[in-house]
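Posting for a labmate who doesn't have an account.
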Amino acid sequence: MWKIGIIDDDRGVLQGIRRAIPWDELNAEWAGEALNGEEGLEMIKSACPDIVITDLYMPVMNGLDMIEQLRLSGYAGKVIILSGYSDFEYARQALRLNVSDYLSKPVSVPTLKSVLGQAIADLEKQEERRMKQDELLQKLRLYEPFVKKEWVKSAASGTLQSTGLQTEIPVPYRFWSDCDHTVLGIELIRDQRGAKLNLSDWSLLRFAVSNIICEVTQEKFTSFDYTDLQTNRSVLIVHSDRSEPAGQLRERLEQLGVRLIECVHSYLKLKLRIGIGERKQHIRDIGSSTEEAFRVIDLHPQPAIPGYDLYVYTVELQRANAETPVRPVKLYLELAGAIRTSQEKQAHKIIFDYMGRLETEEGISKAYISMLAGELWGIIAFAFYEMGTVLDDIFSNDSITREIAELNRPSELAEWLVAKIGIVFSSRQWGGNGKHRQAVDFMMEYIHEHYAEDITLSGLADKVYISRNYLSMIFKNMTGETFNNYLTRVRMEKARELLMEKKALVYEVAEMVGYKNVPYFSTLFKKITGMNPTDIVK
């Protein structure tokens, strides 16, 4: 209930206003009263009324001084002045102090009721906005870890914007600007044992590897970030003090690489390849260190430490192998992101754009095309798996392996990938598996049970914890129609059933299925059913 406090030096006025206010009708209650501004401040401090009705001319402290003190103390409630004097200067000062209304004595009951009603309506709107802001903050806190993770991934892949970068850095990563950064590219080798694992088991192994990497790195370095690249590859960004000598840092990184390889092999019986990129000072250059780290893995030079698949990038090594294609980390992340957000056309564009550029380069061998196809297929499979779709249920591993072996050019690879992605998006499996199917099933069931209520896509998005725009795409993909069209169709079907029972008039049926505007309901009904609602009730 809303609390109302009254301040006036005339006890008769206090009692009269208290009797005149329709408390139950306004859903309000009496908070307290006072005879002057000084007592009023104490009453407001202790009772915290939402609305204050106050006189201006009072002993000890007048109304304007009291209101000014209230505003200075942060009081945000509504203030209504009730004065026996119509003084323009007082009214002007009251306006400056954000007073809701200025009434002259004597005030009629209808006027008092109207002014209080408007004040309460304003308070309700403020409360609604505050609740929405609180919900938004709660959601932001919920998604904050995901946003931070994606930011680190973008930094690792070099997709952060180079302009205005400082303002875009999330607060926990502001210290990056004062450090140097070196990327360790980590590749988990899918040996014969790994090749037999399904995606679910392989994902569990990758998770276990990530835990080991983070625990071991914590022993060697105080500041680092780890991110998965959706494939058998991941990135470890080590942040170091700029005063540390290059030779000392390299030695510590090599020791870390050896320790990671040993621990993963010891605990999980899996093999790692690790490449160390060059040390970078600027955040925008971290992506280059990532490319260097994986470049050196692909080149397989002399290991930095005998007996370990640990390689260190050098400029001389790059010059000697300048014509060898680089694995495109940025492409991998952009493609995975498009699939995770159900943007099929965007996924096609990403593939065609990259393969079009690759087609013009020289030295692209069939072996490189096969390697690239295998990695891209792995990324696509993982991205769809995260969305609840297992590609092993749609394509056999043997057929994928055979088809990849037949690819010769980047253009052929592009056509093949786009065709496969199209099959997945349009297949029954895409529409029937995973949490997307569950979300849409819930929405459809909810619509059938609550069609008479004010149902919105935003409201349902909050219930299934999926963003409104994303949920709209999912619903359209799985049902073939938009959310609003489906809701309207369900309502019209229910309306037709009710009208055929001939127990209610048209306007009553309209309200029963969620429409207060009868002409609008009739227009929709004819559009969906091909007949007027009055034709049925005759």
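Reply:
Got it, the structure tokens are right above this. The mean pLDDT is 82.
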